[in-house]
Every structure is written in C-alpha cells, then in structure tokens.
Amino acid sequence: MSGGASGVRSLPIGSIVLWIVRVALAAEFLYSAYLLFAGGHTEQTFDEIGLGQWLRYVTGVLEAAGAIGLLVPRFGGPSALLLAGVMVGASVTELFLLANGGPVLPLVLLIITATLAWFLQDQTRALLGIEPPEDDEDYR
User: Fold this and answer.
1) What is the dihedral of CA 128, 133, 136, 140, to 10 degrees?
2) 120, 77 contact by CB (below 8 A)
3) Range of weakest confidence among 68-72, 99-103, 119-123
4) Contact 63, 43 (CB under 8 A)
5) Contact between residue 42 and residue 35 where contact means Cβ atoms under 8 Å apart
6) Global pTM?
7) Contacts for 139 with CB less than 8 Å, ≥ 6 apart
8) In this predicted model, what pLDDT tens digit does every residue of 104-131 receive, in sequence order?
9) What is the DSSP string of the chain?
10) Is residue 29 within 8 Å of 63, Cβ to Cβ?
11) Cβ distance 95 to 101 under 8 Å?
12) How many CB atoms lie within 10 A of CB 136?
C-alpha cells in the first residue's frame, strides 16, 4: 500500500533531519537565554567583558527570539543567520576577551547555525525578496 493511499504525507529524510536540528538548537538557545536572564555566573562573565549588564539582556533577547524563530517555518533561515552572528560574537569574546574563556561550545554552535542558515537560505531569500542567482542549479 502506498503512502498516498493511506493519506499520510511522507517528508524527505533531509527535511526531517533539518527539523531535528532546528528543535535541538531552539532548545539550546532557549536554555542559554534563560541562563542569561537568571544571572548568576553570567553576570560575572559580562562584568569581565566590561560593557555592562545591558549586553547580557540584549544577548538573551537575541537568543530567545532566534530560538523561537527557528521553530517558525518562514523564519528558520533568518533566525539561524541571526544566531550564527550571535555565536560569532560569543566565540570572539571567549577567545580574546575572557581570561578563562571556553570557546568550544560557541564555535560548535556557530558551525551548526551557519550550516543550518545555508540549508535554509531559500527562506531568507524569500523573506528579503532576493532572487536566487541565475547560475544556481538548485533553483531551476
């Protein structure tokens, strides 16, 4: 019996994998935003950065908004791009500004969010009204 006869629509495996990555990233960034808003050790980290606690709240808002955006189909690509930008800042901070920085997690999250943004670039282009390049074979 075919999937069409039962009325169940099957998704390609790539689409399923992308959604698993999106949900996992959303959970990670929501947890991270919670930690930023809750304070504790993050207050000390942002004191060490030297720009003030406002940056902690801005980072928390960006991470929470990006996490929620990952779960909205239309905003997945732009949200992944936003979170990749936040992780660039976090990686640079951990590498060069903090005395005992741990850059591994931000770098891993940067690689994953940038890769996700690349796979979801059609959503970003559609939202911004940008046409794909003419020599892009994926869009023919």
Assistant:
1) 80
2) yes
3) 99-103
4) no
5) yes
6) 0.83
7) 122, 132
8) 999 999 999 999 999 999 888 888 888 8
9) --HHHHTPPPPPHHHHHHHHHHHHHHHHHHHHHHHHHH-THHHHHHHHHTS-THHHHHHHHHHHHHHHHHTSGGGHHHHHHHHHHHHHHHHHIIIII-TT---HHHHHHHHHHHHHHHHTHHHHHHHHTPPPPTT-GGG-
10) yes
11) yes
12) 11
| Residue 65, token pair as written in the block | 């908004």
Q: How wide is the angle at C-alpha 116 spanned by C-alphas 114 and 121, nearest 5°?
A: 90
If one compares 4 and 87, the residue with the highest pLDDT of the two is 87
Amino acid at 51: L
| Residue 19, amino acid | W
Q: Which residue has the tokens 């940056």?
A: 55
